[in-house]
Amino acid sequence: RKGVIIGLGQVGLACAYSLLIQDCFDELVLQDIAPEKLEGEIMDLSHGMPFISPTDLKMGTVAEEGKDADIVIITAGVAQREGESRLSLVERNINIYKKILADVVKYCPDSIILVVSNPVDIMTHATLKITGFPSSRVIGSGTVLDTARFRSLLAKEMGIDARSVHAYIIGEHGDSEVALWSMANVGGVKIVPHGWENLASDEQDFLSKIYHNVKNAAYEIIRRKGSTSYAIGLATTDIVKAIVNSQERILTVSGLMKGMYGIDDICLSIPRVINEKGILQTINLTLSPEEEKLLQNSATILKDIFKQLKI
Amino acid sequence: RKGVIIGLGQVGLACAYSLLIQDCFDELVLQDIAPEKLEGEIMDLSHGMPFISPTDLKMGTVAEEGKDADIVIITAGVAQREGESRLSLVERNINIYKKILADVVKYCPDSIILVVSNPVDIMTHATLKITGFPSSRVIGSGTVLDTARFRSLLAKEMGIDARSVHAYIIGEHGDSEVALWSMANVGGVKIVPHGWENLASDEQDFLSKIYHNVKNAAYEIIRRKGSTSYAIGLATTDIVKAIVNSQERILTVSGLMKGMYGIDDICLSIPRVINEKGILQTINLTLSPEEEKLLQNSATILKDIFKQLKI
Amino acid sequence: RKGVIIGLGQVGLACAYSLLIQDCFDELVLQDIAPEKLEGEIMDLSHGMPFISPTDLKMGTVAEEGKDADIVIITAGVAQREGESRLSLVERNINIYKKILADVVKYCPDSIILVVSNPVDIMTHATLKITGFPSSRVIGSGTVLDTARFRSLLAKEMGIDARSVHAYIIGEHGDSEVALWSMANVGGVKIVPHGWENLASDEQDFLSKIYHNVKNAAYEIIRRKGSTSYAIGLATTDIVKAIVNSQERILTVSGLMKGMYGIDDICLSIPRVINEKGILQTINLTLSPEEEKLLQNSATILKDIFKQLKI
Amino acid sequence: RKGVIIGLGQVGLACAYSLLIQDCFDELVLQDIAPEKLEGEIMDLSHGMPFISPTDLKMGTVAEEGKDADIVIITAGVAQREGESRLSLVERNINIYKKILADVVKYCPDSIILVVSNPVDIMTHATLKITGFPSSRVIGSGTVLDTARFRSLLAKEMGIDARSVHAYIIGEHGDSEVALWSMANVGGVKIVPHGWENLASDEQDFLSKIYHNVKNAAYEIIRRKGSTSYAIGLATTDIVKAIVNSQERILTVSGLMKGMYGIDDICLSIPRVINEKGILQTINLTLSPEEEKLLQNSATILKDIFKQLKI
Ligand SMILES: NC(=O)c1ccc[n+]([C@@H]2O[C@H](COP(=O)([O-])OP(=O)(O)OC[C@H]3O[C@@H](n4cnc5c(N)ncnc54)[C@H](O)[C@@H]3O)[C@@H](O)[C@H]2O)c1
Ligand SMILES: NC(=O)c1ccc[n+]([C@@H]2O[C@H](COP(=O)([O-])OP(=O)(O)OC[C@H]3O[C@@H](n4cnc5c(N)ncnc54)[C@H](O)[C@@H]3O)[C@@H](O)[C@H]2O)c1
Ligand SMILES: NC(=O)c1ccc[n+]([C@@H]2O[C@H](COP(=O)([O-])OP(=O)(O)OC[C@H]3O[C@@H](n4cnc5c(N)ncnc54)[C@H](O)[C@@H]3O)[C@@H](O)[C@H]2O)c1
Ligand SMILES: NC(=O)c1ccc[n+]([C@@H]2O[C@H](COP(=O)([O-])OP(=O)(O)OC[C@H]3O[C@@H](n4cnc5c(N)ncnc54)[C@H](O)[C@@H]3O)[C@@H](O)[C@H]2O)c1
């Protein structure tokens, strides 16, 4: 089990620390364009190795130390700035990706690529086009974290462990993401049992607020600490574990749509089954008509951006 | 199992992330003087909770949310700057500690205090004087990390897992720290079997270089990335685990000397047995005469600094 | 965190081995009426301790070493024989429990009692009556294992990880247990989307077979190896983890019914929220009319047995 | 990571349960000559899978499901009876091994074989001869468990965690095994600092009793519970972890001697470095003259037995 992380900023480092502590790889290669800082980070991480299950940690590139890696995690890019929309980052990041991916295609042709850089749905789609990889092996972290935030907020409001709350955020990882209220449940008890329109208006307000908190979580954190890192580090670790342990777990990762809900040729998040081959299968949920419309809207927004890009 | 971390800079955050992932506490309270940034960090950390064993994570102070904590970890302070000696940080940090410790004494009178701020031996001693706590309950992270670095470098040179290398760094966590070559061994085989003076000079050079790399590791990392954080986060987690799991493990933490090797009334690191009561016992090693002299020298250096302080 | 296991037969030992490996307690006391065999088991278990996180393991009784335990797990009793119905075991086991529980009441008055002996619903109810404990602190392992078997079989048929299958077995742990098809889903997709009666008859047969396999699993295993032990050991560990980590997870444990679905004064399994205080809350599921009738039938069967007992 | 266990009696099952809980393999195949009981055990184990990290668990043989396994663990054989010496079991077990190993050679030609059946040193040597495998890939569990028992008893007497006690049992896993007092230490402090002959006679008695308790532990447990299983299950798991995680740990496994201490062409335990290739290296300890004599004696005893066998 060999992994590479490309881009060791706040996010890449949180991923690396979490992946090492949780012992996900036998070998982990870290690649960045700032070699001196990276060398310092690797010294720091490696001095902690005697306290945990050891991983063979190396500074390097996919072209050499990272050759034939099983998973390539890309967090390179430019962090979202306060107030900046996720989509505005895109042109800068596409160019960085083109350089990085040329080597991934050459030296890790059988790898699964896990895209974390924002806007993650666009970057995932771009990665697919640039590499020509089969769509099962290009995965975006998508709304895995948003789904976790959603469950976590619902759980908190209800005084329940988040693992007993079943609810999804799908669509774009961004402003148009969709909360699937129609199937959200706590241990089998639906949160919205008789349709959104039959909720009292204070109930609607209460639940809407939770959705908005989920959607705006990144903005709120960036406003306070300048970037987000720890939660996405743990979300990425969770996706990696589903892959390396071949658990066939269902996660709302971003991937290529092929007609479901009338959406195709764009990447966005819906629940997908993940195993050691990447995306094994996409789950066909019965959405409410309203939810389906919102999801299609999310797809349209992403398509509008994507077609403006030269890839 | 309730913990508090005071000071959520680079080091405090690396401790928090590692302690959460490794599920060391049921409840963890984070305290800092920069409330907005802290709020952002806690939001970020807590959104990752659905991916790991949950800990009840709170923003607060020892005086309120942290009341009656079992362990108070203090990493508040000013980071070592490039080129700055660890000892020059001291006056600034003592003043910060005075304020913090007044509340710890009042609201967590039975806690174990784990001092991480530098210069850690001086800060540990100061904490002991300021709080009046029994010496078993004031522990400095000391040379736990240096010992790990030492084992890790030796292991690397010999192609062995670090857990099979047994060797200690004792004394000051700093320039006068002492490598105990006389008992260093790999699975029972001594590294210096017949005394340092009977080594060939190239062997001496080789081993001396390892010692210097250990001693200067922090400087080298700070030069590259500005501070150190991940390894000390894992070392701190390891000490916390020895306490909360009451494992009676031996760790080279800093604590009060009471006459062993002719050293007393100063804090420095020698192997100590740690359990849920704190320091249970100090291990009386048979040092070589040279090692004993170096340890006494380390004590003298620390005493010279300590007596210049008003506490 | 202190636990006691009473009854170290096949089941108790599987619980002990799993609880030790998964490091659930700081202190674990094992009590049985066969002291010599127990002494051998404890020697064997304790020699394995250097390979795992250490637990303080002791031979003893609730009256002495086990005093003030947090959790008392009772697996004492007589194993189910080939062909024997779970309910026929009851009289023998009630008498054993009376002796055991007198000491639990006296020496562990604040403990949570986790009943595993069969017939587990009856034994849980008997424990409640004999001890006079509040119903939150008397928990039967109930259909936690049946629910896991159900998920595991569904997952296997669908090629999905069991953790993404959400489905419950409720009611009696035994022949009248009820599969909740109406809410069973895989990542949000209902397995029976339009009611049982709208399934094709081969679909009904296919799903019925899964239910029968779940219900008869214990019989099948007992026929082959004489008893069941490993799975119930892991299920018990899972319940213990929910308690000691205060996770507020939802588990189908057995507990006292107080009117929900028109059922009261009997113990059976429905989803309940568990934390360090025991049963925190009972989940009010919307059952289909058919499911509700089956659950009431399960309750009636248990009541008929219970009223024949002198407690 | 694929493993096979051959022989699912008390020992094989304890190994399987521990290996599953500790998530050591992706795929685990269980082979035995009693298919019905084995089927029951596998049903029982697999129903517990939803509570732990899943392993693909199968009933089968090395010739089919187990093909190309990385590690083959052999615990088939006849358990030691009360009062029976380990060496008297040998003829019966050799014959069982011949059949088993023919298939291992054919279908898992690159596997590491981990021999657990007793007398383990003889069975390891026989396995080496029968298979013609390189000596690095034939490992006996040897005195790994005896060493753990030794550390555990020393730790208990001294009120220290076993992980801080460094001491070895080497030689035959049996009556002639050797305690290496000359290097035994607690955190660097020697237990016998100035030679055995300079101990007071009550100190000698005290330490001798610990050695005898280690040597006779299996007999004592077998007398009480009929066989030993849990500790050897955990010891075996520990060896497997050293292999699959390629940790380069030092363990006192049994393996072929090639001249060290004047001993060759026999298998016995001395500290060896283990990684994913098997035995990487043998540690050359400086023994006291008395310890060296005892080890040579152990070798002679094993040779005398081995030469009586037809292999
Ligand atoms: N998917 C999510 O949920 C999520 C959450 C948080 C952040 N992000 C995204 O992750 C990305 C990284 O965020 P960050 O906070 O770590 O940013 P950062 O600026 O701290 O780090 C970016 C790193 O990428 C490196 N880099 C730039 N070009 C490179 C190249 N060609 N090759 C290798 N490395 C290169 C930089 O040197 C830097 O170390 C951003 O795009 C951000 O928006 C995504
Ligand atoms: N023991 C070791 O081996 C070791 C290793 C690395 C760093 N350190 C030491 O750890 C300390 C922290 O280093 P860092 O890199 O995290 O520094 P940092 O500057 O990033 O963080 C210090 C934090 O302390 C906070 N703080 C200051 N005064 C406070 C007060 N009165 N109450 C609460 N919080 C307060 C600051 O707001 C800041 O968040 C330094 O003293 C450093 O030298 C020790
Ligand atoms: N709830 C479930 O899902 C489930 C699953 C499997 C087994 N079980 C039940 O668990 C119980 C134990 O099964 P087993 O296979 O371990 O049986 P077993 O016969 O192997 O063990 C029973 C143990 O209880 C001990 N014991 C008897 N009276 C005692 C007393 N007064 N005090 C202390 N110990 C006493 C016996 O000495 C023996 O060691 C049975 O009732 C069985 O039906 C429940
Ligand atoms: N190395 C150690 O420290 C240590 C410790 C305990 C036991 N042991 C040894 O482990 C072995 C097993 O002990 P146990 O208590 O599990 O015995 P057991 O009798 O319970 O189990 C032996 C199993 O081997 C199976 N078996 C027999 N022939 C077989 C064949 N040809 N193919 C496949 N399976 C076959 C049997 O069906 C049975 O299930 C014994 O040799 C025992 O002495 C070693």
Describe this structure in words.
With 311 residues, chain A is α/β, with parallel strands linked by helices. Chain A is 41% helix and 19% strand. Chain A contains 8 helices and 16 strands. In chain A, the strands form 5 sheets. In chain A, strands 3-2-1-4-5-6 form a 6-stranded parallel beta sheet, with helices on both faces. The first copy, chain A, has a 3-stranded antiparallel beta sheet with strand order 7-10-11, with helices on one face. Chain A has a 3-stranded antiparallel beta sheet with strand order 12-15-16. In chain A, helix 1 (10-21) crosses helix 7, helix 3 packs parallel to helix 4 (120-131) and helix 5 (144-158) crosses helix 6 (201-225). The longest helix of chain A is centred in the C-terminal third of the chain and has 25 residues, at 201-225. The two termini of chain A are 31 Å apart. The mean pLDDT of chain A is 94. Chains in contact: A-B, A-C, A-D, B-C, B-D, C-D. At the A-B interface, helix 1, helix 2, helix 5, helix 6 and helix 7 of A face helix 1, helix 2, helix 5, helix 6 and helix 7 of B. The complex binds nicotinamide-adenine-dinucleotide (NAD) (4 copies). One nicotinamide-adenine-dinucleotide is lined by residues 6-12, 31-34, 75-80, 96, 99-100, 116-118, 120, 141, 145, 173, 227-228, 232 of chain A.
